[in-house]
């Protein structure tokens, strides 16, 4: 009879073998029935819309700065004026006096010569190119710095989202739209600056949010924030010597263009085209929703009609103030702190008139011609005060 030795245990004579999970007993016939197929790899972070590298907005910024430097070179204050700022340091790039240009820039005559918007030149001499050239000129260092900082702040994000083609079209067309409305109401002063194009970007941001309403989160918060920014910026236009008609024209043009250029396809439609293989995407019947097609068509019609009517009225010499008695308050609203109308005192001796602006106390002597009207004196007074 066999017995267990007291000096040995059953465990010492029992051999236990464990099959490793790494060996596959069925290498050819497929995976083992106890080990299911692994899930597909996780896709990279999904971005339904392409991100663009922003190069156009910085390029526009550099162009505006270079053009301002060229403008100051042409202005050559030490040679053409008796009072300049920074002559010893800046040489021919010196600024006009603070009374003549508080924004630290060139004279009004230089701006008019290079391409500032002036209605008489557009209507009488058919220089319609001024509607576009004025948006690339600035009245001073303060002016160009504020505009270019705003352009970088707003424009880079938009170019990342929508690309350089659509942003370029928006910038130029909105700038021309602002110049067009300005020329219908600002009849006796010159106008320069990229503010119309900048307000076009703000208008397009608003319409982009509305036309793509269904694909955004926190949409109400974004809408209220954007409206507050727009209202604050437009409110600045009621100050004297600020062309708020260019702001309004650019904003309306950009708002309409946003429905045309910034329309996005539905999220489900994009997912269906870009989802990785092995994943299910919700079905989408149409690339765009019905309301997106409707707003695109209406905005395009209004935009074309607005430009046609505006150009016809401008070339016919129509003054918008004659048909809207209150519209001038949109550009400057009088308060106890400032006056919207330029006021000058005059003293005449022979065919010479000495005119003094009551706001900046700048004086200048003019030679009278054969025909002089109140409108001509008012224009001279505005030039003297601005």
Secondary structure topology:
Elements: H1 10-13, H2 56-75, H3 77-80, E1 84-85, H4 87-90, E2 95-96, H5 108-114, H6 119-124, H7 130-133, H8 141-185, H9 195-211, H10 219-235, H11 244-261, H12 267-274, H13 290-315, E3 344-349, E4 352-357, E5 363-367, H14 374-385
Antiparallel strand pairs: 1-2, 3-4, 4-5
Which of globular, elongated, flat, extended, rod-shaped describes the shape?
elongated
Strand order of the largest sheet: 3-4-5
Strand content: 5-15%
User: Whole-number average pLDDT?
Assistant: 82
- The number of helical runs is 14
Distance between the termini: 126 Å
Give a quick account of the main beta sheet: strands, pairing sense, barrel closure. Answer: 3 strands, antiparallel
Order of helices and strands: HHHEHEHHHHHHHHHEEEH
The share of residues in helices is: 40-55%
Compute the number of strand runs: 5
Output the radius of gyration: 34 Å
InterPro entries: Peptidase_S54_rhomboid-like, Peptidase_S54_rhomboid_dom, Rhomboid-like_sf
GO molecular function: serine-type endopeptidase activity
Protein name: RHOMBOID-like protein
EC number: 3.4.21.105
